[in-house]
Amino acid sequence: MGWRARLLMLDGLAPVIDDAGMLVWGTLADCDEDADLVFLGMMDEKPCFAAIPDEGATGPSYANPQIWAAIQALAPPDLALYGGARSLVDWHARHRFCARCGSPTKLAKGGWQRDCAACEAQHFPRTDPVTIMLVTHGEGEDRKLLLGRQPRFPPRAFSALAGFVEPGESIEEAVAREVLEEAGIAVRDVTYIASQPWPFPSQLMIGCHSHADEDALTIDETELEEARWFSQNEVQAAMEAGRDGNGPFAPPPPAAIANVLLRWWLDQGK
C-alpha cells in the first residue's frame, strides 16, 4: 500500500505550499521509518496520512506569520484539510503521556485515539467550543453592530466578540456571559448562524447573533483594547475596502467565520 499512500507535507505544524498555492503531497518514503502517522482519510482512492512532529505548538498561532500567510493562500478545500491535520498531529505531539497515570501512550485507531497500556485509559482528540457573536442595537437604518479589538490584533482591526463555552453552560448562556463580561452589555434573543472549525489549536467557532437594548459600554480592558458600535454604512464600507483599504476599520480576514458573520449581518439589513 505504501506506493499508493500520500503524505501531507508539513514543516513542523505549518503547511508546505507549492507555487500554485496548493498543499504539497509526498509519499511515505518522505518521512522517517519510525514516524507515527495519523490517517486523514481517502483521496482519489489513495489513503492519506500526516506525520506527528517532535513538538506540538509552543506559542500562540497568531504570532506565526507562516501560519497566517497559509490561511490567506490556501483554497477552502485545502484549508479545511490542513486545518484538520494540523489539529490532530498537534494534539498527538502534546499528549504523549497519560493524563491519568503519566505513563507513555500509544497511537490507536489510525490516530484518532491514544491508549495507555499501564492503566488502560483511552484518550481522544479534543475540540473546545467557542462562541463568536454579533451584538445588534437598534432597528432599521439606525441599527448598529458591536465589534471589539484585542491588543494582539493588527492596527485598525475589529472583529466580533468571542469566548470559550464554560463547563455546564449552554451556547446561549455563553454568549450572554461573554458579552456582559467583555463589554458590559446585556443581550437577549441569541440565535445560531453558522460554525467553523478553527485548528489553532483545536476549537469549534459557534457563530451567533444577539440583541442589546442598551448601548452604554463598560469594557474589560484585560480582554479588549477597544470596543465600538459601528453603523451599517460603516460596516459596509469596511467590508468593501478590505483589510488593506481605507475603510472605517480593517475587517476580519475572509477565511475567518467573523467575516462570514459580518456579511450575514449586512444581508439582513437589505
UniProtKB/TrEMBL annotation:
UniProt keywords, alphabetically: Hydrolase, Magnesium, Metal-binding, NAD
GO molecular function, one term: metal ion binding
Domain Nudix hydrolase span(s) in chain numbering: 125-257
Classification via SUPFAM superfamilies: Nudix
Catalyzed chemical reaction(s): a 5'-end NAD(+)-phospho-ribonucleoside in mRNA + H2O = a 5'-end phospho-adenosine-phospho-ribonucleoside in mRNA + beta-nicotinamide D-ribonucleotide + 2 H(+)
GO biological processes: NAD+ catabolic process; NADP+ catabolic process
InterPro entries given in the database record: NAD-cap_RNA_hydrolase_NudC, NudC-like_C, Nudix_hydrolase, NUDIX_hydrolase-like_dom_sf, NUDIX_hydrolase_CS, NUDIX_hydrolase_dom, Znr_NADH_PPase
Any one GO cellular component localisation term in the record: cytosol
Necessary cofactors: Mg(2+); Zn(2+)
Enzyme Commission number: 3.6.1.22
Similarity section: Belongs to the Nudix hydrolase family. NudC subfamily.
PANTHER family found in the cross-reference section: NAD-CAPPED RNA HYDROLASE NUDT12, NUDIX HYDROLASE, NUDC SUBFAMILY
Protein name: NAD(+) diphosphatase
Native species: Qipengyuania atrilutea
